[in-house]
Amino acid sequence: MSELPDFYQAFREQHPDVLRAYESLGEAASREGPLDNKTRELVKLGMAAASQSVSAVKSHTHRALEAGAVTEEIEHAIILGVTTLGFPGMMAALSWAKAAMESDRT
Fold first, then answer.
1. Are 101 and 77 in contact (CB under 8 A)?
2. CA-CA distance, 66 to 45, in Å (whole number)?
3. What's the pLDDT score for residue 103?
4. 70 in helix, strand or coil?
5. CA 52 to CA 46: how far, in whole Å?
6. pTM for this structure?
7. Which of 51, 84, 92, 103 gets the most CB atoms within 10 Å of its CB?
């Protein structure tokens, strides 16, 4: 994964108990169903795109790649949202994901 944002790193240092609890909740949610890690990350990517969260789109793009997703799967997960997000929202999320994928290549 690319370098974590400075703000996230500072939060992790200042509030380690909160971050551990948050991560533990995410791990529990992951164990609750049959989806594999790659599928979970693609679903989370779609949700991040829907919330128009730049940092979450980038984070889940990196995580999806680490889980074995390929560029086409990442793009498809976002393009599927065109009827929900609208074309401009989908295009914005796609540009954030592409930026994240490009940063992984460098």
1. no
2. 13
3. 87
4. coil
5. 10
6. 0.88
7. 92
